[in-house]
Amino acid sequence: MSGLKKGAGAWRTRLLSTAATLLGLLVLTFFIGRVMPIDPVLAIVGPDADASTYKQVEAQLGLDRPMLVQFSHYLGELAQGNLGTSLLTGNAVSADIARVFPATVELATLAIIVGTLLGVPLGVYAASRRGRLGDHVVRVISLAGHSTPVFWFAMMGLLVFYAWLGWAGGSGRIALAFDGAIPRVTGLLLVDTLLSGNWEAFASSVKHIVLPACILGLHSMAYISRMTRSFMLAQLSQEYILAARVKGLSEAAVIWRHAFRNILVQLLTIVALAYGGLLEGAVLIETVFAWPGFGQYLTNSLLLGDMNSVMGCVLLVGVIFVTLNLVSDALYQVFDPRMH
Fold it and tell me: Where do the TM regions start and end (predicted)?
């Protein structure tokens, strides 16, 4: 009984800490946004507008009031589920995010699958070959993948696989012939094309997403493989590994059944954080591939000084990372008996 109370108290503390983190994120973003050298009023009325028009629009946006009053008003609207209206599109910010976010989710999900399926085995292989040729090759690949700018990979990928070989689709999520022809059900184009039964559209969407997803996946693979190698090296130096080898277990059994099993919890956290990073950090890929996703929407909002959209995006990013952390903590409880 005391254990249950202790666990409930820990989760209550964690939730309060989460709420405080999100509030701090909102405060920081709001006040930084208000001192940025970008004038959203000027972006709306244009540089040739007269002073009275400028003042009228400023009052309509509520930017003539003190910042604390503006922030309290924003929190009041947020409590009612209202993220405000986007200056960029004229739509509700929540509607805009609901429209663009599935495109990024689809791209990031495929990328993290690629990154995990490649990064984990490479990291395990490098650790099991420590100091040998295979280890050095994996480390060089990881270093190159982590340090090379992702936009360079994107441009080279377009040049080789789209312009020269014609294997990949060009910009956007689907060929122009199918644009607007697929009924929107989930916002995930691969799923919606399957639901519509349009196999040509499905093939087109696959052709368009493979290249950006693989480039993002290779970038995350570099991080995942390095962390997997580090975790595995720590386990392979433990005494229980020596004992397993003395008992005559095969090297594959020692590595996968014993050492790898003990790093699963750590890997879950790494993959979760990498996935969160892909969801909010795919800006460059989305820009190069003209991918109409969350990153591109956030970038355009920042350039315009559209703080309602920026605040909504920042809040979503914060919620994503907080949720992933909470999920990781819950998985720790499930998979690691030492946490009970």
Answer: 107-128, 140-165, 205-224, 267-289, 309-332
Q: 96 in a domain, yes or no?
A: no
Number of domain units in the chain: 2
User: Coil, strand or helix: which one is 183?
Assistant: coil
Give the domain CATH number at 298.
1.10.3720.10
Q: What is the DSSP letter of 248?
A: T
User: Among 2-11, 39-48, 115-124, whose mean pLDDT is lowest?
Assistant: 2-11
Q: What are phi and psi of 85, to 5 degrees?
A: -110, 140
Residue 86 in any domain: the answer is: no
The token pair at 289 is: 């591939």
In this structure, are 191 and 131 located in the same domain? yes
Dihedrals phi, psi of 32, to nearest 5 degrees: -65, -40
What's the predicted TM-score (pTM) here? 0.84
Confidence (pLDDT) at 5: 55
Strands (E), the chain: none
Which three-class secondary structure state does DSSP give residue 92? Answer: strand
Query: Could you tell me which residues come within 8 angstroms of residue 163 by beta carbon, excluding any fewer than 6 positions away?
Result: none
- 146, pLDDT greater than 60: yes
The band of 6, judged by pLDDT with boundaries at 50, 70 and 90, is low
Distance in angstroms (rounded) separating the CA atoms of residues 116 and 224: 7
The pLDDT score that the predictor gives to residue 338 is: 54
Nearest Cα neighbor of 297 from 323, 276, 316, 275 is 316
- Report residue 316 CA to chain centroid gap: 11
Distance of CA 161 to the CA centre of its chain: 25
Per the structure, the complete domain to which residue 242 belongs is given by: 102-339
287 Cβ neighbours under 8 A, 6+ residues apart: 151, 295, 296, 299
